[in-house]
Amino acid sequence: LGFGVGIAGLYVGSVLFYKGSAKAISKGVQVLSERKSEYRTVDGREFKHLDLGFYDYGRRELEAQGFVFLEDTEDALHKGPRVFFRTLVGADGGTLGILYHHKLSALLRMLGAKDSKVMEFETGFSNGLYVFTSNAEDAGKLDSPEVIDALWMPHGTALPLVHRAHEKRLQAFREKYPGVEPVPVTTAADLHRFQTELDRIKSEFRKRHGLSKDELQRI
Q1: Neighbouring-strand partners of residue 5
Q2: Contact, 154 vs 140, CB < 8 A?
Q3: Interaxial angle between packed helices 188-209 and 2-33, expressed in degrees from 0 to 180 and rounded to the nearest 10
Q4: Most buried of the four, 48, 138, 161, 194, by CB within 10 Å?
Q5: Residue 217: its H or E element
Q6: How many angstroms from the chain centroid is the CA of residue 25?
Q7: How many Å separate Cα 93 from the centre of its chain?
Q8: How many Å apart are CA 166 and CA 90, to the nearest integer?
């Protein structure tokens, strides 16, 4: 009888945990659908709690491939541990190389969660479509807006591999849509407009789409 009660308790506990997790995830998705951003230029050296060596390594690697440093940016409205985005622009004037270290709280790390050191490439085109290639694998558990063609590679995928994959995907995209050109992003003001527009697209998609059963199961 005691064993049976114990098993029943574990079952009820797991159901309650799942429902609580689902509610927390749904709340997080609601936040995404209402997300507003306010981007500002920052000095990356101020972020001592982040792995600045990772940012510097990424900058050196990208500059060796012809990228030019644009700026370090922070979303001033972001709640939680501060994080900044280091953005460089490629030789085509429109492909962005973005690096960021998302550091989790000490509690989450104690529970086994790991920080994310993300390397991402984004290109917007004159036809309103976007190509994303990133090693932020977990982001792929949520569906992307229809106008964003995203590839989410495994965590830890090296920067040269992510870059090479993006270049191949850009070539395929141009073959599919001949004559399209990258949207130019050459100044800080261009970058802020680009980021704000993407946030709008993602937010409106999430409002329409909500959270599907398939997405919840993947999470």
Answers
A1: none
A2: no
A3: 130
A4: 194
A5: helix 213-218
A6: 17
A7: 21
A8: 12
